[in-house]
Amino acid sequence: MGVTTKRPSARERLLDAADRLFYAEGVHTVGIDRLIEEAGVAKGSLFYNFSGKDDLVAAYLAGRDERRRARIARHTEGLTDPVEKLLAIFDALHEAVTSPGWNGCAFANASAEAAPDSVEAVAQRTYRVWFSDLLLELATEAGYADPAGVAGRLRLIYDGAVASSRIDAHPAAALVAKDLARLVLEAAPRT
Questions:
Q1: Which UniProt keywords apply (predicted)?
Q2: Distances (CA, A) of 123 to 34, 55, 119
Q3: pLDDT at residue 164 above 60?
């Protein structure tokens, strides 16, 4: 008796195609017909599973958000020192920027040409609030006198590494950023 593998659902195939195409080429460049063809589904399947392209874009970005959070969690898991956790976030970034197919920040890419109230902009804000809160929480836990200032500087360094890794094709940018973050953390006064 042979082993049978279950074919992914139409929703899964649409999300997989959206993840590949949107990330590689852009959410505003890739049309519905191309997604349907790439996913190998009927047009009705798209509208059965999603209310339209915006809903599919939102699901694509939610998946990217979930994977990014999981990657950071993997890198901080088992660490007890909040300073080490802050530095581990840059290790998670290094893993991302050195992975095959790295094409920059999915949220920034998607929202670059989007309206301020678009699903792309909402997804980017959702991620940014979570990320900012994480940095602030860890900086507070570490006992910095100005945790918001420390978190803001780390976020700026992180964003610079994301941009440099993509624009300058500089995969070591995340490691340089980690060194800079370490300097910020060592210099910042603690209570």
A1: DNA-binding, Transcription, Transcription regulation
A2: 23, 11, 6
A3: yes
Alpha-carbon distances, residue 25 vs 33, 35, 81, 150 (angstroms): 15, 12, 39, 35
Domain that holds residue 167: 63-187
What's the pTM value of the predicted model, to 2 decimals?
Answer: 0.91
Are residue 149 and residue 89 in the same domain, yes or no? Answer: yes
Identify whether 1 is part of a domain: no
Residues 125 and 80 in one domain: yes
The CA distance from 26 to 14, in Å, is 15
Determine how many CB atoms are found less than 10 A away from the CB of residue 185. Answer: 20
- DSSP annotation of 168 reads S
3-state DSSP percent of the chain in helix, strand and coil, to 5: 70, 0, 30
Structure tokens at 16: 């997989």
Whether 94 and 133 share a structural domain: yes
E strand intervals along the chain: none
Mean pLDDT of 138-149: 98
For the record, the structure tokens of 23 come out as 């990330």
| CB atoms near residue 99 (< 10 Å) | 10
Beta bridge partners of residue 190, listed in sequence order: 144
Torsion angle (degrees, nearest 10) of CA 108, 54, 62, 136: 50
Does a structural domain hold residue 166?
A: yes
In this predicted structure, the answer to whether residue 76 has a pLDDT above a threshold of 80 is yes
Q: Which of 75, 122, 95, 101 is nearest to 19 (CA)?
A: 101
